[in-house]
């Protein structure tokens, strides 16, 4: 008597045989459904970003003018000095402990790798496209620095809150996701205002030479004059350092300590220390101290903490960070709709670096880190590390370009196209990363 069930069949030899083709088909359907569920989970945060960004762009239109130039400045200052530090402080203080520091140490290393690898890819892009000198610093900045702030702050908790999220309990996942994103934002700010700031300043210093040699044609002088030291501090050979050193150094007997002091002073002069120690960075330091020092943590963190109202107030103000920051991003993208003289191949190259090559390399970096025990088994933490390679350029690049008057209009065009493409690429990469971690 022959018969069959869903996965087994009763063969002629009188034994039940496994129907392998049915099993394979069922597994394939299951995997397809799982991938589709993950795609929906990854799509929701990106749609939120897109809707809020589009709202910001609409509010910045001349006919509406609710987020004009002055309004963006005021709102950005509120985010920079109040909302963002409050968010970073409250999230890190609640979730960071001495035990968690054993794993979190790799995040600054991972972010640094994104900057270094992005810079190498940017150098290759510059050679291939023969990028003009005044845009080379912009290309390196856009390829190396990702938006490690507001995008992760939206994506991490939104992914956790989805019903089919692969990261476990939504409340715990959201808290840790916000902490990881906050730490990412603070570390990213330090790298942007040291590493990228120095590179873009070096390339901007080359621009006046071109303008001076063609002054009769352009009719303009150096627009980085305000960044140079005053002329009365310059010595006869054009260097201001000699006049500031002790007389024994200027006479040729420069000691080792003198050379060290001189090197530190030169390095400090090339970075924007005010932006390195931005409010978010200071808040991150305070958050680490509160979270890791047990007596302080007991006073401020917890339902029974006597001063818990301070942390609750900071968390309440921090909730305004994400919508305000994203609205400003959308408003700034309006400038990218205007025409610019940047080469299409340069824009396409930057888009390819940030949306194809860096995310692929990031998989190898994070997998290698896990293989060598540098990253724990927390899948959410690995997901954030992977996403750091797949983000569009940081909006701070536009501020630096505006500061040095190097490629301001071109930067707006690059940002516009990078964020348009990121709408699709972030969804696909997020889906693939979650599938990979499952």
Write up this protein:
This protein is an all-alpha fold and 438 residues long. The chain starts with a strand and ends with a helix. Helix content is 71%, strand content 2%. The protein has helices at 20-59, 69-95, 101-104, 106-129, 133-144, 150-161, 170-205, 207-213, 215-218, 241-244, 247-250, 256-270, 273-276, 279-292, 294-300, 308-318, 321-332, 344-371, 379-387, 396-404, 408-437; strands at residues 3-4, 8-10, 16-18. The protein has a single domain, classed as Na+/H+ antiporter like fold (Up-down Bundle), CATH 1.20.1530. Mean pLDDT is 77; it is low at 1-10, 15-19, 29-33 and 209-251. A hairpin with a 5-residue loop joins strand 2 and strand 3. A 3-stranded antiparallel beta sheet has the order 1-2-3, with no helix packed on it. Helix 1 crosses helix 6 (150-161), helix 4 (106-129) packs antiparallel against helix 18 and helix 18 (344-371) packs parallel to helix 21. Involved in cellular auxin homeostasis by regulating auxin metabolism. Regulates intracellular auxin accumulation at the endoplasmic reticulum and thus auxin availability for nuclear auxin signaling. This is Auxin efflux carrier family protein. It is found in: Endoplasmic reticulum membrane. It is a multi-pass membrane protein.
The general outline is: globular
Q: Which value, in Å, is the CA radius of gyration? A: 26 Å
H/E element sequence:
EEEHHHHHHHHHHHHHHHHHHHHH
Count of distinct structural domains: 1
Largest sheet: 3 strands, antiparallel
**Helical fraction:** over 70%
Specify the CATH class: Mainly Alpha
As residue ranges, the low-confidence spans are 1-10, 15-19, 29-33, 209-251
Strand percentage: under 5%
**Helical run tally:** 21
The CATH architecture name reads: Up-down Bundle
Mean pLDDT: 77
What is the straight-line distance between the termini? Answer: 43 Å
Structural class: mainly alpha
What CATH calls the topology is Na+/H+ antiporter like fold
Q: Quick one: how many beta strands?
A: 3
Membrane topology: Multi-pass membrane protein
Family: Belongs to the auxin efflux carrier (TC 2.A.69.2) family.
Function: Involved in cellular auxin homeostasis by regulating auxin metabolism. Regulates intracellular auxin accumulation at the endoplasmic reticulum and thus auxin availability for nuclear auxin signaling.
Organism: Dovyalis caffra
